[in-house]
Amino acid sequence: MRVEENPTKPGVRGVHPLIRWLSFIYLVPRREWLRRRIRRTTVERVCNLNLVVPSGVYNPVAFRTGIYFSEFLADSEYCDPRRFARQSASRALDCTTGTGAQALVLARRGFDVTAVDINPEAVRAARCNVLLNDMERGVRVLEGDLFEPVRGSEFEVVVSALPLFRGKPDGRFELSWRSPDIIERFAHGLSAVLAPDGICLALFTTDGDQEGFLRALQQNSLNATVVADKHLGNEITSVYCIRR
Fold it and tell me: pLDDT per residue over 182-204, tens digit each?
C-alpha cells in the first residue's frame, strides 16, 4: 500500500517554459495516435480492469491523467476503508466518473460506491464496465450533475477528476474537460455530501485554473493539501486531499 508522506499546502505552480516546449515536441507524434484513439471505441486496461471506452467518453489511458489517478486510488492509504470506523461498508462517491475506472477501483478496495456523471454516454459506458468486471454488487451508476443525484447522502470518500478548462463545452465529449463554473459548484456542494470524518480526493493539473480551484475551496471553508503528484512533462498532475 502506498503511504503518502509530507503532504504540502497547495499553491499555484507551473511547468518551466523550456520543459513544456520540449514536451510538446515529444507529444507532436503522439497527438495523431491520440486523435485516432479517441475517435473510436476502444478497450483499455487500467489497474487490471477492462474498460470499454466509447468515442464520446474521456479515455483515461490516452490522456494519462486518468490512469494515474486510478493507480493512486488503487493503493493509497487515503482509500483504505479501515481508516473509517463503520459497522457497515464505507461509502464512496465517484463524481464525474467517466468510464467508471475510479469507481471500480474503490469497489475493489471494499467501498460501497456510487458513481455519477452528467454525460449519458459516460453513464452507459460506466454501467457496461461494471458488468464487464463483475462489480454489480459494489457500484451503482447514476446520471446527473455533480451531487444532485445523491442529495441527502453522505460519503466517507469522494473522488473526482474535475474538468480543467474554463468555457462552454462544445458537445458531450468536452463535458469531461471544459466547464464555465463546475469548480465553484463542486466546492459549494462538497461539504453537504462529506461524512464528518470524510475526505475528498480531487485530481487537478497545472493546465487548469489552479487559482480558481484553490479560491473556491477557501471560500467554502475547505482545507486542501497536495498528497501526490506526477510530472508529465507539459503539466504536473496533483491529487488534493480536501476536508471540511
Answer: 999 999 999 999 998 899 999 98
Q: Strand, helix or coil at 233?
A: coil
- Which of 53, 57, 52, 47 is closest to 79 using CA atoms? 47
Q: Among 230, 215, 91, which residue's Cα sits nearest to residue 150?
A: 91
Looking at the domain assignment, is residue 12 inside a domain? no
Residue 5 lies in a domain: no
Q: With beta carbons less than 8 A apart as the criterion, state whether 165 and 180 touch.
A: no
How many independent structural domains does the chain possess? Answer: 1
How far is the C-alpha of 115 from the C-alpha of 103, rounded, in Å? 6
User: pLDDT class for 31, splitting at 50, 70, 90?
Assistant: low
**Containing structural domain, residue 32:** 17-243
Reduced to 3 states (helix: H, G, I; strand: E, B; else coil), residue 127 is helix
Classify residue 185: in a domain, yes or no.
yes
Please state the pTM of the whole predicted model.
Answer: 0.86
Cell numbers 457500484 correspond to what residue?
139
Residues paired with 141 in a beta bridge: 115
- Give dist(CA 178, CA 36) in Å, integer: 21
